[in-house]
Amino acid sequence: MQKIIVLDRDGVINEDSDAFIKSADEWLPVEGSIEAIKLLKQAGWKVAVATNQSGIKRGYYGRATLSEMHRKMQNMLAPHGVDWISYSPYLGGDNSPSRKPAPGMLQAIEKALGIPLQGAPMVGDTLGDIRAAQAMQMQPYLVRSGKGERTLATQDTLLASIPVYDNLLSVVQQLLKEN
């Protein structure tokens, strides 16, 4: 059976900003995240990204700029790269089925890669990431990077059974020990 993991982008793979990441120059990896993805790829995992990108609809950047950010990430990961990137340009109030916490992006990943996500790990830094993972019966992991500390500070009951790690690299190191 093919191993797959789904990652949120901002705050998990790259540094996040309340002012949004609006260019490839502003896109900076979280320490250890590029190494983590390379380790997964070397171990034979499929790696997908599911990322809310409301900055597009807000007019902060366009789809071409988003593509530049993703090219930068893929170049850092060369020769491996992630296998699939799904993004949602919508605002929370749009009630789009593709915007997390709705599972639309995850369903798209499942369809595109032909791999069931049930039971697979998903790494995020927000309650929306956790809810999306749970909607697909995935195993959510929360990282303290990005908005993770803020998410933990909510003390939401949803967090009671969610494994928490410092960053993506620490999650991946644990997953690779177990698998």
TrEMBL record:
It is found in: Cytoplasm. It is an enzyme of class 3 (hydrolase). GO terms for molecular function: D-glycero-beta-D-manno-heptose 1,7-bisphosphate 7-phosphatase activity. Keywords: Carbohydrate metabolism, Cytoplasm, Hydrolase, Metal-binding. Pfam families: Hydrolase. The keyword Cytoplasm applies. Its EC number is 3.1.3.-. Belongs to the gmhB family. This is D,D-heptose 1,7-bisphosphate phosphatase. The lineage of its organism: Bacteria, Pseudomonadati, Pseudomonadota, Gammaproteobacteria, Thiotrichales.
